[in-house]
Amino acid sequence: MSDLVYTIIAGVAYLVLAPIAGGLLAGIDRKISARMQRRVGPPLLQPFYDVFKLWDKQQVAVNEAQSFYVFGFLLFVIISGLFFFTHGDILLVVFTLTMASVCFIVAAYSSNSPYSQIGAERELIQTMAYEPMLLLVALGFYLNCGSFSIGTILDAPRMSFIYMPGIFIGLCFILLIKFRKSPFDLSMSHEVHQELIRGTLTEISGRSLAMIELAHWYENIFLLGFVYLFFVWSAPWSPILGLFMCAFTYFNDILIDNCCSRVKWEHMLTSTWLVTLVAGFVNIMFLMYMR
Amino acid sequence: MSYIKKSPWLVHYDGSSCNGCDIEVLACLTPLYDVERFGIVNTGNPKHADIFLVTGGVNTQNLPVVRQIYEQMPEPKVVIAVGACACTGGVFHDCYNMLGGMDKAIPVDVYVPGCAARPEAIIDGVVKGLAVLEEKQKALAVPVNEKLAEKETVMEPSVAMNKQQEAKK
Amino acid sequence: MTLPALLTGIPLAAAILVFCLRGDGVRGVIVKLAAALTMALSIATAVTFFGHPAFIKSSGTLLSTIVLAVDVLVAVAILYYTLVKFKKIWIAVLELVQLGLIMWFEQGPGHSVTVRSDLAIDNFAVIMILIAGIIGSLIAVFSLGYMKEFQKEHPEVEDRRPFFFFVIFLFLSAMFGLVISNNLLIMYTCWEITSFCSFLLIGYTQTEEAIGNSFKALWMNLLGGLAFALAIVWLGTEYATVELSMLLNLGRSAQPVELAVALLVFCGFTKAAMMPFSGWLLGAMVAPTPTSALLHSSTMVKAGVFLIIKLCPILGNNHAGLMTMFIGGATFLFASFAAISQSDGKKVLAYSTISNLGLIVCCAGIGSYEAAWTAIMIVVFHAVAKSLMFLSVGTAEQQLGSRNIERFDGIFCSMPGLSLCMIIGICGMFLAPFGMLISKWAAMKAFVDAGHSLLLLVLVFGSSTTLFYWTKWLGKITAYIPTDKNREEGIHGVQWLALRSLSALTIITCILFPLISQSAVIPYLEVTYQTTMDVIDRSNLLIMSMMVILLVVLPLRFGKGRKKKLVVTNLAGENCGDNISYRGVAGQTVPVSLRNWYMEAWFGEARMKLFGFILCGSCLLIEFAIICGGVFHV
Hints:
Largest interface: A-C, 64 and 54 residues
Mean pLDDT of chain A: 90
Distance between the termini of chain A: 34 Å
Mean pLDDT of chain C: 89
Order of helices and strands of chain A: HHEHHHHHHHH
Radius of gyration of chain A: 19 Å
Structural class of chain A: mainly alpha
Helix content of chain A: over 70%
Low-confidence stretches of chain A: none
Number of domains of chain A: 1
Number of strands of chain A: 1
Radius of gyration of chain C: 24 Å
Number of helices of chain A: 10
Number of strands of chain C: 5
Strand content of chain C: under 5%
Shape of chain C: globular
Oligomer: heterotrimer
Helix content of chain C: over 70%
Largest sheet of chain C: 2 strands, antiparallel
């Protein structure tokens, strides 16, 4: 019974708090980026202003179907986050996330506009690039903690990071793609007005665009949750370490974002798969021998 | 409260001009002026934009382009003409292919004079545009806006004089 | 005994009838009737034998006589084609050797072998019967409409439709016989019939290419048949048995039967188009689409994996098992890589079939409970979704005049019904709440638990590339290009019937997936493995089912809201207003055409084939050398 209550509370808390935290994170991101460029930067709450504004704008679309896919994207991101925070199965989280990104890609394809299409193709290559590593993260936790259940992973007797440093490096690498940071912001950068107008988002506007922003906030929060999992074990003070490491990872990504220029897709694919092989797979092999 | 004032995204289009104003527009994004502190973002996409910032005048070739971009922007939207060319046609006004200032193609809400317009003037113009934007937001009853959009597509360039201007006269 | 006899008898009777009565109308009636009967019979068999696995012994020598007679008949037919008609001596030799082996065995050592049960109908066989019965019949019905159009469009191809349906029903009959037989001799006979039928079906059009490819299929499958015959002879002479169940028992009690197992697995490889035998499956694409649908989704290739999965309990960490899992894994990876570079719809389907079969074989090779569960589940989902995909692509090809995916531009608007079928099929092939992905999930768990890190790597990379080529295709279909033209009018009613039933079947299997696992697969595994477990938590399965329901319901409720203002797409302000052309620099109208990425330099077919063939071929050679060395003590 108490389990059920916990699950419901965690679920509701995620639904309510994640967008707030995600929006603030985006605000902090913009502020820090601006400071790194010696600018003042927008107010902290700027992402919220943007989304509220978009919500109120006139509904403009290129076809009737697109907003459905966008809605699917938001829905499945939320669902996969729900699985994560209600201590569900980590592979289920990854698969649902994949489902969400497929929705997103199809939304871009459906407009049949060149900018969107190139964005969609690039997004697809990005997905192909990061997917193996994301699965290896889940498998690493399974090998280390003996379960795919996030509840069990959180109760691990020792810090997961010390057994899976390679996998952590791999995760950090693909988080650059997931957070849409340079050098891997090929399909749509979080900074606007670049080579592809806005790539996948070119034809999406108004309320649909707001939904996508919202989905990204949700997504970012539980992607950081993956980082959190590495540093939390049964010790009562470990959540502080976990949160600190989340912040640290995100800051690092912002730093890299501001230092790097965008790479070609070939470079992204090879480097990501190489990191997956070298850091991720070697780590998995050791975990397997340790079993 | 209206969030549109706090998050104006703009699309910048360069018509028939010498590019001087464009350099000044880009200067606004530099750390010295940093328009992002007002939440202003320079999107390249009319569908995301609230403000249509035009430099340069309208000629026969870019007339449909300007109109299409304007058409693609969701309501409420504001057009800001930056620089002498965008306001009146400027030094190019008697060129064989010129139609004149931007108001010959689409309704312009704010005129920023100057050759080229200084970044301070441009920012000032955008801030003025924000007031118009908020007004439009308030005035927007949904069905009316649909009709408005339809009407604007059929407008001839010569007829498309700014309504405010006419009212003033 | 009656039900199995009817099950194989009815399609056979239908085959003969269709061949003899040549009128179009009569054929339509017979095919529909036979399809309905076959479907009903397979369901009846399922109901009767579900949960009550039965071993049946035929009385007297009637069955063995028939089997031998059919063996000879098939051999004569093959010899006619190879020696008389087309002069392919080597293929004839291949057939003669195996016929000789079997004849010698039947007269010599085989004579004293006592068979305790000829037929075995367990849950797995029932699943296969349902797949072949329902999907196979639907494909037969679909062919009615399709072949009519096909003959209209290809006047140069001789109208041999009676022959076509004859072969299709003969094929189904043999397939039923194959999955219910326990006696390897009976299975071998059915095996030969399916090989021969596939040869006939592939060569239907009688063009040079078709004939070449049909002989390719024939020699590869006969090579498998030869291995089968060798396995029977070896098993019969060494252990005095020709039963599959006995082989399993021998294997379980750690008897050295590895050679027989390896030979049978090899035989499965040829049928299931594992690399380096993938060539025949790709070549089979020259045949009319129903053929591909039948061969590559529900029957032919599934016969190959059926045999391997049957052997699953005695594979695992032995050389036969290692060979199976590595060849399966390599095929999975390289076929899914190669699929990226293909733009021909049927070829993408072919490569995706090969890669999925690779995954099934790989799971079967691991041999654990979880792996077997996964393998059977993939068999089910793949059969349903892939047949739907084949039929959809075939229909699209007829309507559009091309099966190149790039020509599918805008079918979301011009062929809404068909594109919906395709979307369902594609989603069923790889997307999250649908079956295939759950199977991948289970595969991942099975691979980790069995401790094969290399295979794990294969799986994660293979599934990400799978995602790539399917999503690419999905994107092409969903691209929204408004049009007034409806291009669906030429599709026959029977075609719609098959397409819609298969779409519904795809969705239903995905929703009822926990039930299938619980009531069909787990009981079978309980018997074969003497243990039981949940491969994936039941709650997670339920969640998946709910998500499928959500996905089905969501589109129905969507789009009822406010009307949106429609604007043109962003073509830098130069859109002509119709979204499919823009004004160029000199004021001319330039059409917009969007093409997908194929990354030929990375995932080129030739390259992937080379890698795959070398890897799988050497794996095959090395493992066989080791196994033979172990058996013959050299």
